[in-house]
Amino acid sequence: MNLPDLQSYRSNFINKGVQLPLPIVSGTENGLLHQLPPPPFGKTGWPWDEQVAQTVYDNKINWPKLTIVTPSYNQAGFLEQTIRAVLLQNYPNLEYIIIDGGSTDQSKQIIEKYAPWLSYYQSEKDNGQSHAINQGFSLSSGRYHAWINSDDYYLKGVFHKVLNKFMSTNADFIYGYGNDYNVVSGKTTTTRVLPFIDYFIKIPSLVQPSTFWSAAIHEPVWEELHCSLDFELWLRLVKGHSRALIKEPLSVANVHDQAKTHSPKMKAQWEADHQKIWAADAHGTVYEWKKIIFFNRIRIKLYKVFGYYS
């Protein structure tokens, strides 16, 4: 497993003239809703004509810096929703970075429209999602990290809930439930994540856009992976560290034909990632993984028996 050196990425940005640390998102005491570009015609509700009230953030608290990275490529139909759902949290100490891989749709124009409220953005050819994420975090100066893909978005008030959880628990890793919204049927389903011990980290159960972690435990993403990059990251990043579960949805993943998780075209790539992750020189063997799956089924049944699922 060859992981990139984030310091080398950081040095490349510095050599290009990027000034570090990046500026935080500039806000106002009344929030950003009326400062941002107006939403597209007919768009209402969160995150179009609603915002988190800035008054929810107690000004007596020194809110820690939160870094959000959005890797972007040809998701113009969803990207503006993603951006607004970050900015309209009105979090008082936010570093927001967008790394676009040279999109050929309207993504660049959307990003540029919101540029005054971004800490940093670029739109140029890269080596894929993993590379974009690593580039973004190489610029980070936040105490806490998360990434949100350009076709997903955060629910209203999530940053307030998550940062309060970090401060009240001193956890290294926060995770929560997630919603899937089917853009064709209009139906929403919720993935409820179970609490887990280290042994069960090898079960792909975490909802990526509903995860946040301390910069102190951050690891680079394995760039050879194209689909299971988040799952593999958890195998290295979460084990042995304190964590806390928020038992409510924190994010929405838009389910559409081009989404990696739901596209039949990506089946071969998922299988290729699986073989890399479960190679002997990475995270074990397929046999070991199947054994863990068996014990996980027993664990889920026990949770159901004792009423974890309502």
Describe the protein.
This protein has 310 residues and is α/β, with parallel strands linked by helices. It has one domain: Spore Coat Polysaccharide Biosynthesis Protein SpsA, Chain A (Alpha-Beta Complex). The protein has eight helices and nine strands. The chain has helices at 6-15, 76-87, 107-113, 129-138, 158-169, 229-237, 267-277, 286-305; strands at residues 66-72, 94-100, 120-123, 144-147, 152-154, 173-182, 188-191, 211-214, 243-255. Strands 1, 2, 3, 4, 5, 6, 7, 8 and 9 form a nine-stranded mixed beta sheet that branches. Helix 1 packs across helix 4 (129-138). The chain is globular. The protein starts with 5 loop residues before the first helix and ends in a 5-residue tail after the last helix. 35% of the residues are buried. Residues 67-191 form the Glycosyltransferase 2-like domain. One of its GO terms (molecular function) is hexosyltransferase activity. This is Glycosyltransferase. It comes from Mucilaginibacter rubeus.
Structural class computed from helices and strand pairing: alpha/beta
Calculate the terminal CA-CA distance, rounded to whole Å: 41 Å
CATH superfamily annotation: Spore Coat Polysaccharide Biosynthesis Protein SpsA, Chain A
Taking the sheet with the most strands, its summary is: 9 strands, mixed
The poorly predicted ranges are none
Shape: globular
Radius of gyration: 19 Å
- Helical region count? 8
CATH architectural grouping:
Alpha-Beta Complex
Name of the CATH first level: Alpha Beta
How many structurally independent domains?
A: 1
β-strand percent reads 15-25%
Helix content: 25-40%
State mean pLDDT (0 to 100 scale): 90
Would you list the SSEs in sequence order as H and E?
HEHEHEHEEHEEEHEHH
- Tell me the number of strands: 9
CATH fold-level assignment? Spore Coat Polysaccharide Biosynthesis Protein SpsA, Chain A
